[in-house]
Amino acid sequence: MTTRRLGVIMNGVTGRMGTNQHLVRSILAIKAEGGCRLADGTRVMPDPILVGRNAAKTEALARRHDVERWTTDLDKALENRDDTVFFDAATTQLRPALLTKAIRAGKHVYCEKPIATNLDDALAVCRLAKASGIKNGVVQDKLFLPGLRKLAMLRQSGFFGRMLAVRGEFGYWVFEGDWQEAQRPSWNYRGEDGGGIILDMLCHWRYVLDNLFGAVRSVSCLGATHIPQRWDEAGKPYKVTTDDAAYATFQLEDGVIAHINSSWSVRVYRDDLVSFQVDGTLGSAVASLSECLMQPRQATPRPVWNPDEKRTHDFYADWQPVPDNQVYENGFKAQWQMFIRHVCEDAPYRYTLSEGAKGVQLVECALRSWKERRWIDVPELELR
C-alpha cells in the first residue's frame, strides 16, 4: 500500500470548534485510521502544523494531542513548500486577508464560514482563488448531519411529492455570564468584532436551503437584540452591539416557503438544538441533528379541532422513524476527506469558496431586509 504525505497548515484551531471538530475528530482521526484512501488505493496521511497567535495555547494544544509541529509565525509556515493546504478557523474578520495571503503563497485553501463579513471581500477571495487555479473549499457541516442526510434521502426518493414548506428552529439559552459562565465567546455579541447571529447562522441556512429544499430566491428577516448586556470572559459587563436572534422567511424555487428562527435567547422545548419540519403533498418529515421521523400521506391522521375537550390523541405516535440503514461518521471528518481527495486526485467537489460567498450574500440581504423592513430578492451570484 502506497502512503503519501499531505502537509496541512491549521490556523486558529485553539478554539472549541477548531480543536474538537477539525483537529481531533477530523485530521487526527484520519491519521489514526491510516490516512484518507484515494480511488487507486493510495493512502494520504495528513501532517498538520498548528498555527496560533498565543504561543502557550498553541504549544499546549500540540502537546496534548501529540502534534509534532506548531508555530506562531504564519508567514514562515506559508513559505514551506512541503505544506500545500491552508485551513483557517480563526475570526471571520481576519479570514479574507488570511485566505488571500495563503492563496498568493500557492496553497490550496479550506476554511470555516463565514468566509468574510461582507460580500465584496468574499467575492474578492473567490476571484483570486479562481484566477490562481488552487483548490478551495468551505465547511458546510450541517449537510453531513445524520438527520439532514435522512431528509435528503427522503427528498431524492420522491417521498414528499411536491414540497410545500420548511420550518426550522435553531437555538438555546446562552448564559449572560454574570452568575453562570457563557457557552459562547463574548465577541459573538459585538458587531465591531464580527459577531451577530445573522452573520453566524444565515450562512448555514443558505447552503442547507439551497442543497436540500430549493435555491433561495428572496428573504424577509427581522433581527433582535433580546439581551442588551452580557459579561465577558473576565467577568466584566459589556454592551451587546449586534443581534442575538433572527426570524427569517425565505421564498425558494418552485414556490417552497421556508421559515427559520435562530436565537441564542431561547430555552429548548424540542427534541434537539435544531429541528426542521418539511411538509409536502405526499408526506412530511421532522429532522433533528441525528434523527428523522416521517409521516406519509396514507398514514396521516384526521385531527379535529375541539377546544372544549382535553386532547387525548398522541400525535407523536403517528410518526415513523427513518431507519439508520448506514453508518454516519462525523460530518466534519467526512468533508475533510472529500476535500483531501479533491486536492490529491481532483475528485469532484462542490463546496467551494463561491458557495461560501452565497452565504455572505444572504446575510447582506437579510440585514438589508431588517433595516428596510421589506422583502429582498437574492440574485444569482456572479464571480466576474
Notes on the structure:
With 384 residues, the protein is α/β, with parallel strands linked by helices. Helices cover 31% and strands 25% of the residues. It has helices spanning 16-32, 55-64, 74-79, 95-104, 119-132, 146-156, 197-213, 331-345, 353-372; strands spanning 3-11, 36-37, 43-51, 69-71, 83-88, 108-111, 136-138, 163-171, 216-224, 229-231, 237-239, 245-252, 257-263, 274-280, 283-287, 292-296, 320-321, 376-377. Strands 17-16-15-14-8-13-12-9-18 form a nine-stranded mixed sheet. Strand 10 (229-231) and strand 11 form a beta hairpin. Helix 4 packs parallel to helix 5 (119-132), helix 5 (119-132) packs antiparallel against helix 9 (353-372) and helix 7 (197-213) crosses helix 9 (353-372). It is globular, with a radius of gyration of 22 Å. The mean pLDDT is 96.
Query: How many helices does DSSP assign?
Result: 9
Largest sheet: 9 strands, mixed
Q: What is the CATH level 1 assignment of the largest domain?
A: Alpha Beta
Structural class, by secondary structure, is alpha/beta
Q: What is the correct CATH architecture of the largest domain?
A: 2-Layer Sandwich
Order of helices and strands: EHEEHEHEHEHEHEHEEEEEEEEEHHE
CATH topology of the largest domain, by name, is: Dihydrodipicolinate Reductase, domain 2
In CATH terms, the superfamily of the largest domain is Dihydrodipicolinate Reductase, domain 2
- Report the strand count: 18
